[in-house]
Fold each of these.
Amino acid sequence: MSYYIPSGEKIEKALNKVLKRFRTVSSQHRLQQLVKKELKAKKGEQVGVSETRLRHIAINSGLVDLEIHTREGDPNKILARCPVCESSLKRVKNLTIWGGQVTIEFTCPICGYWTGKKKRIPTRYIFHLKKGK
Ligand SMILES: [Zn+2]
């Protein structure tokens, strides 16, 4: 079995078609299946696009509102990069109104991921076509 590795541009085009047709795709794996189908490999060929690469392309395409579902992770784990898109996380301090306590949050300016002390580990992604696209 040989692999066909499409360019980022081709993947983005296929992604665009898939999102316009379905509006919402409820998992990364499903999105991968739909995009692969759209990219139509030749007979005997497999389309090679990993879920992670596809997610990165989707985030950078500006076509997607990404809904990130998470579970609680280890509070002692240090996150240097965004677990969703690998951008640098921004450290944000929030003052709570009542106690004047400071909470530290990390946010990603690219994909909208955020986490507090209890780390949020992404478990599922839902891809919505961005409004106005
Ligand atoms: Zn991110």
Amino acid sequence: MPAKYDAQIATQIINNFGAKPELLVQILHAFIERYSYISEEAVRQIAYELNISRADVHGVVSFYHDFRTTPPGNRVVKICQAESCQAMGSRELTAYAEKTLGVAMNQTRDDGEVTLEPVYCLGNCACSPAVMIDNKVYGRVDTGRFADLLEKHGGA
Ligand code: FES
């Protein structure tokens, strides 16, 4: 469960980076680490404290795939979509994952149990295709192994 938003802690996070607009990406990463997503409240506060526009913050948030803007499900499944993994079947794996989990890429299932997200290289290219489930990276994941991993992480 993501931590509840707290404006004072948010200020502390921003101040840890000297409230410098040029460190916006690092600040957003720190927010993601704490809150798991960038809420509208966070965008407003970051913009205000860095003295930049909300559009500036939104621009950076939407540019990076890592910055989700809605709360994730209880489990987060990421499938690498970068070149090496694509060459080794990540598209087919993605189609299988969408079907098995009952959720489309970039979405959280209605029951809030699982979020399926793309990721662009997990640094595991030698063992493509790679997936990350609840922050743990797995390599050489075919559909059978994916099903096993899901079982290990609480089922589909
Ligand atoms: S391309 Fe998928 S782990 Fe590098």
